[in-house]
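agent> fetching stored inputs for the adenosine-5'-triphosphate docking request
agent> found them:
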Amino acid sequence: MSAISLSSVTKRFGSSEIIRGVDLVVNAGERHALIGPNGAGKSTLFNLISGQFRPTSGQIFLNGERSDREPPEMIARRGLARSFQITSLFARLTVFETVRLGVMANRGIRFCFWRSAVSHREVTNDVDGLLTDVNLSHRANVLTGELPYSEQRALELAVTLALRPEIVLLDEPTAGMSVEEAAQTVALVRRLTAGRTLLVVEHDMDVVFSLCDRISVLVHGRIIASGTPEEIARNESVNEAYLGKAAH
Ligand SMILES: Nc1ncnc2c1ncn2[C@@H]1O[C@H](COP(=O)(O)OP(=O)(O)OP(=O)(O)O)[C@@H](O)[C@H]1O
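agent> prediction call returned; pasting C-alpha cells
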C-alpha cells in the first residue's frame, strides 16, 4: 500500500516548468529520502504533497485517495504533517507553550475542540509526553528563541508530531548541525517515526544512507532513480548527476 503516490505530476511557475512529470511512490511505513542538487525542486515537491501548491497537471494520492485538489488543512486532517521552521515565529513563547499550540491545533482538527470541553490536564499530559519524546522536558519553561539550534529543531519535531501524523514530511532535519548533533537527530527521527511513513529531504548523505529504507533522486524536476540505498549508491546516472558531485 502506498502512503504517498504521485503520477505524472508537473508544476509550472509562469513559463518555467520546475516539476516535470514526477512519478513517485512512498510505501506505507517506510522511511524515504528525497535527494538532489540545489534547485532540483525538492521543496516544490513537498509543497505539492502537503497542499501548499496545486500541481499544474498530474495526480497525487494519500493512502490511495486523490489529494491534489485539497487545501493543506484537509491534507493535515488526512494524517499528513510537515515540519516548519517555527521557532522564529514563536520566539517569545516558552517551549511548553509552543508545543501546546500544536496539541490544541490537533485537538481542534480532530475532536472539534471548540465544542467539547477537553480538560486542561489532558492537553498538559500530551505536551509533557511530546517534550519527553524529544528530550526537551528540562527546557519546558525556556523561551523558544533562547534554545540552542539543535534543540530548536527538536522542538519543531515535537510540534510536527503533536498532529499525530501517519505521514511525516521533514525538510533537512539535520541542516546546520555538528556531526554529533546530526547523529542524535537521526536517532530521534528514527525512534519517533517508527510505525509512521517518513519522506525526508536531506543533503547529508550519511544521514540519508543510515536513516532511509529507500531513496528517490530528483534532478531538474525529474526523478532519475528510486531504490534502496545500495541500489542508489551504485546507480551510474545518480553518481554522474549528483552523488559523485556531492562526494566531490
Ligand atoms: N513560488 C515560486 N515561484 C517561482 N519559482 C519558484 C517558486 N518556488 C520555487 N521556484 C523555483 O523552483 C526551482 C526549484 O526550487 P526548490 O526550492 O523546489 O528546489 P530545492 O530542490 O528544494 O532546492 P534546495 O535544495 O536549494 O532547497 C528554483 O529554481 C526556484 O527558484
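agent> quick read of the result: The chain has two domains: 1-79+199-247, 80-164.
agent> awaiting further instructions
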